[in-house]
């Protein structure tokens, strides 16, 4: 890469922002690990499947959200095009899932 | 420049240069060469098919070999010829059009090419032991029950080349999003760059479905799973869905880039701005968007029910609207222009009526009720050859004639170009127009022979004669390439004198860093704007400074060899467990290469300011 971050001076405002960003990342990472532990615990503890399945789905959706918005920077400014491409991908995935549930397996 | 220096050094050094290259232009040429080779193979298979069908109850090849021939013809033409040639054009031209010095991930670019090439070679090695024979769509349960290793070669070969294509697609998206020259906003990008962008998004979304389908097929055939085995609770229709969720976007991956080519050729040779630029971009996106919800029109006769069939029929017909917008925009671009006719223009002009015929039969096929009559007949064969040959192949040839001087510094010969155009064009219509009627008369596709005196004899004879015309056209084109390489007329930077986009601002062929100074883009058709203001060349956006370029690497090549050995092992380990050694050894080679790539820092090299100033422009 032509510009190396280490050789560039970063102003204090940028430093402050980076620090906040890092905090958010760590918090969401910790939360994701926690969710995963909860998911495994629910299955190991043999909670009835009527509760487990919807709970797992909710946990999964939240984790996907963290992944996209925090780790893949979808929330940031200047990421409009990549976000749109990812929403497109989500739409296609949704269509595929819909097909398999609606016309193949019903 | 790099070409001439390579010619001076020995054969070994030249070979090493091409094996290790990460230059997008050289990789583009490699893609063209690889795709061209497979195009000839696929063409040979087509000729054999047409010789078999030249007369009723012919015995030119056996029934089993005929099945292998049609399977390999389809697979080769789609995956190993049309798409790689398009990827080659994109690779070479797109970075030049947006004013970039290379693609975003040069290493990945090289890896993508080698994976495609070795995937294709692996697939074709199956000829020695029995090629795949379940049709290019490889429907289960036929493909599950096919004996021998043919289908295994299909699965592993496409998996490898598919991975390569996916890498190419991701690479192009990132390049276009991040590496446009100063001033090159999205709505100033040339149409070919736009269609590359949209086709790459389609690759990104569509290929995973194929990957999943191929993996399920691999597990069913090699490891005893039962995804497609109804007797064990599987469902064969899943393969059809997965294949067509990939397969339908795939046809737009094939056609959108050539829409881009025509949108470059028409304005250049009509000396007019592309009519309805914004509408063209919008139509491209609309086609891509709709292209993802029409796959079940390949499955109307499966029995999805009237509701599903109607939804997919209506969605399919809707695609005719954005495509129609494009056709009219091209016509309006030509209208009132000062038109120059040459080979590139002939291919483009021939595309319009040919593709429109294909589009009309497409709307006929989209009607679910009528499709029960057309399904699996030669009507379908006629339709998709009109869109793929009349669209993609014409577009590729138009693009090759148009950009050949840019890529190789010499013009393709005009006389030979027109001979190959007319023979191919006439042959194409002879071959495929009559097939619509053969289909309506009830001739089914994929049949080895047809009976005498059923009204099919003359039609098939005409069709086969057309195929010979097409072969002649291709041979003349090959002669043209050889002739041009030896004696072709040298081309200046702005080879056609009426270039509008950034690739015409630099020398032909371009230096390996493309732009000495990145150009400042002041609007759509940047070169044209400068010409209209009387400027000789582009305004630079930066002072002359050292240029940072990536280093070549042999790792992608070795990594690919590793994966190929592993694929071979996977294919044969079903019969003999010793082949697992090949699996482990191959994977080890690939993983070690990845490890080296991760651990060894490679910061590329810099071209110094002094060297740049010495070279001049």
Topology (SSEs and partners):
The complex is a heterodimer of chains A (106) and B (617).
Chain A: H1 12-44, H2 49-71, H3 80-105
Helix pairs in contact in A: 1-2
Chain B: H1 2-8, H2 11-20, H3 24-52, H4 63-97, H5 106-125, H6 142-145, H7 150-178, H8 191-222, H9 237-270, H10 277-291, H11 306-318, H12 320-334, H13 343-366, H14 368-374, H15 378-408, H16 414-440, H17 457-487, H18 526-532, E1 547-549, H19 555-572, H20 580-599, E2 605-607, H21 609-615
Antiparallel strand pairs in B: 1-2
Helix pairs in contact in B: 3-4, 3-5, 3-17, 4-5, 4-7, 4-9, 4-15, 5-7, 5-19, 7-8, 7-19, 8-9, 8-10, 9-10, 9-12, 9-15, 10-12, 13-15, 13-16, 15-16, 16-17, 19-20
Q: What can you see in these coordinates?
A:
With 106 residues, chain A is mainly α. Chain A has 3 helices and no strands. In chain A, α1 (12-44) packs antiparallel against α2. The two termini of chain B are 12 Å apart. In chain B, 67% of the residues lie in helices and 1% in strands. Chain B has helices at 2-8, 11-20, 24-52, 63-97, 106-125, 142-145, 150-178, 191-222, 237-270, 277-291, 306-318, 320-334, 343-366, 368-374, 378-408, 414-440, 457-487, 526-532, 555-572, 580-599, 609-615; strands at residues 547-549, 605-607. Chain B has 2 domains: 2-553 and 602-615, Cytochrome C Oxidase, Chain A (Up-down Bundle); 554-601. In chain B, strands 1-2 form a two-stranded antiparallel ribbon. Chain B is built from 21 helices and 2 strands. With 617 residues, chain B is an all-alpha fold. The chains are: A mainly alpha (106), B mainly alpha (617).
Would you kindly provide a brief summary of this structure?
The complex is a heterodimer of chains A (106) and B (617). Chain A is an all-alpha fold. Chain A has helices spanning 12-44, 49-71, 80-105.
